[in-house]
Amino acid sequence: MFQNEMKLEFPSKSQNEAFARVVVAAFASQLDPTIEELSDVKTAVSEAVTNAIIHGYENTQGTVVLKCKIDGRKLTVEVIDYGKGIEDVELARQPLYTSRPELERSGMGFTVMETFMDSLEVESEPGKGTRVIMTKEFKQL
Amino acid sequence: MVFIEYIYCKFLFGGIWMQLFFDRKDDVLLIKLMGELDHHSAEEVRIKIDNKIDETGLNKIIFDFSGVNFMDSSGIGVIIGRYKKVKEFNGKVAIINLKPHIKKIFELGGLFKIIKEYDNLQKALLEF
């Protein structure tokens, strides 16, 4: 079975949201994905990294870790921050829930990740940080 | 695929995320977006559009999404925010030229309950 992995660290600057999703798309391109599959992954990564920046670090400086793994035709993406953490993960995952309504955010981040990927796991500890693990199985060629 | 992404990277990291083009058709403000709508570009987009709404006093907006090749949930906030702004003055918002992938995000965000989508500008101007 084909396997590959990569790890990337970058500061929590909003410019890196685009950087992160393009990097994951380039990494996933070795699976010959369809345009639709690639768009799904890019959108989910963008949501996870944006959450790390605006909620995890609340726009202060921190490090975001991005890990990707390929096992056969399955892609696993992990987005890790060492920021504030989430008090109630179940609540945060509810559609339309936002902890910062003043920011004109839609509260749809986790819903988008869930919809566009096959699985989503959120591990978080207040004061320690958050780890988002998403997987997607790419169609057979 | 990789080559296309490379050119796209260069374009992206040249610092251009989103360009806005404003036009006026009678009492409608036409806003054409070109680029990527994410959390990074959202703030600037929001300010530029709000300034244009204030400057022209128009309360009917058509967003042309033909040039938007990426949008995440940050875009939902931007569109709902502008909708709320013109709604205060009995205004309305329409969207044209949505790409299938971006349409999926609009559907998830429930945007079609408040905003009408048209196939093209002619139809939008006629029925809007």
Q: Termini distance of chain B?
A: 39 Å
**Overall geometric form of chain A:** globular
- pLDDT averaged over residues of chain A: 95
Shape annotation of chain B: globular
- Specify the biggest β-sheet of chain A: 5 strands, antiparallel
> Rg of chain B, please?
15 Å
Q: Supply the CATH superfamily name of chain A.
A: Histidine kinase-like ATPase, C-terminal domain
Give, in order, the helices and strands of chain B: HEEHEHEHEH
Helix content of chain B: 40-55%
The structure class of chain B reads alpha/beta
Order of strands in the sheet with most strands of chain B? 1-2-3-4-5
Overall pLDDT metric of chain B = 88
Low-confidence stretches of chain B: 1-7
Question: Residue ranges of chain A: pLDDT <50 for 5 or more in a row?
Answer: none
What radius of gyration of chain A results from the CA coordinates? 14 Å
The most extensive interface between chains reads:
A-B, 30 and 29 residues
SSE order of chain A in H/E notation? EHHEEHHEE
